[in-house]
Amino acid sequence: MSDLPFKAVIPAAGLGTRFLPATKAMPKEMLPVVDKPAIQYVVEEAASAGIQDVLIIIGRNKNNIANHFDSVPELEEKLREKGDGKKLAAVEHSSDLAEVHMVRQGEPKGLGHAVLRAKSHVGTHPFAVLLGDDLIDERDPLLTKMLDEHRRTGAAIVALMEVDPEQIHLYGCAVAEPTDDPDVVTVGGLVEKPSKEDAPSNLAIIGRYVLAPTVFDVLEHTQPGKGGEIQLTDALEELAKDPNGPGVRGVIFRGRRYDTGDKVDYIKAIVQLASDREDIGAELKPWLKEFAATL
């Protein structure tokens, strides 16, 4: 196991077709969730877990992402002149979160291919992969537990969440064996979107992974799978089956997660997070009750 600090990799090269036309010129990762773009929540999560080096894998028309995490001296000076310290702090916060780097994926060939594009930047460091469709509530930390489990075992770590068996066909599913820790399982295999009858468990893979750089060797010979793309789950399956390696473990997340992957869940995420905000929740919740009563 490496003593080097963790890095973070955030794949953000997708086309965002489910949110067209909003994503015709704006990356889906920049769509606002209340008053921050979705990808800022993800970078904040990495930073809160102590990761200061973040690589975002981008595609075409994604320059807005780089701009968001860069400083804007003209705007900052205007806010200083106005004495608007609150907005100035919010603007500076996004620039000071971490050392944020960008690399282009080119042609999107799947999550495994996106992760492989991080090889040169990651080098020999262990790293976390965070998908922007899954926002994890900052009050329910997940990544810290995953990093600790990787440090302890050297295994590849995946985040898992119990779902209704009727919904398991929407997810990758883990073949899981319990460990001494009720929140950690040994993963013997992964099944992509199984039927309820064929699912080995109701533990669904959600968008957080912690990996050793050896995963790049596996990804380099992983053949295109589902959808003709290089799948990260196929590489993890190989790691899970390797009798000489540290294997794969799953950390079961029991906290609040917000799915921004489709329109309805994106709206739900905004409403849930806004309702809990101290600055707007008190005004929003009574209106929500009134509105719900009219439905």
Index terms:
295 residues, alpha/beta, Spore Coat Polysaccharide Biosynthesis Protein SpsA, Chain A, 2 domains, nine-stranded mixed β-sheet, two-stranded antiparallel ribbon, 11 helices, 35% helix, 23% strand, globular, UTP--glucose-1-phosphate uridylyltransferase
Task: Summarize it.
With 295 residues, the protein is α/β, with parallel strands linked by helices. It has two domains: 7-261, Spore Coat Polysaccharide Biosynthesis Protein SpsA, Chain A (Alpha-Beta Complex); 262-295, no CATH class.
SSE blueprint:
Blueprint: E1 7-12, E2 32-33, E3 36-37, H1 38-48, E4 53-58, H2 63-68, H3 73-82, H4 85-96, E5 99-104, H5 111-116, H6 119-122, E6 127-130, E7 134-136, H7 143-153, E8 156-162, E9 172-178, E10 184-192, E11 203-211, H8 215-220, H9 232-241, E12 248-252, E13 257-259, H10 263-275, H11 281-293
Parallel strand pairs: 1-4, 1-6, 4-5, 8-12
Antiparallel strand pairs: 2-3, 6-11, 7-13, 8-11, 9-10, 10-12
Catalytic activity: alpha-D-glucose 1-phosphate + UTP + H(+) = UDP-alpha-D-glucose + diphosphate
Organism: Microbacterium schleiferi
Protein name: UTP--glucose-1-phosphate uridylyltransferase
